[in-house]
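Q: Hi! First time doing this. I have a protein sequence and I read that you can turn it into a structure. Is that right? Here it is:
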Amino acid sequence: MKEITKDMLIGDILDADRGTAVFFFEMGMHCLGCPASRGETVEEACMVHGVDPDTLVAAINEYLASK
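A: Yes, that's right. Below is the predicted 3D structure, encoded as structure tokens:
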């Protein structure tokens, strides 16, 4: 996976690169194994957890680009 967007499903991102899990844990999303959370988009999860989706997407994309 080269880059993510805020409309991508969290489950798809985790399946493509397990290293991205740390970014979701850091935002307070500790239920990554839950089927409901895997079906949420990045933007939906950020709304629930009070995180700016653009900031999270940028951080994950920076991580992916560094690999």
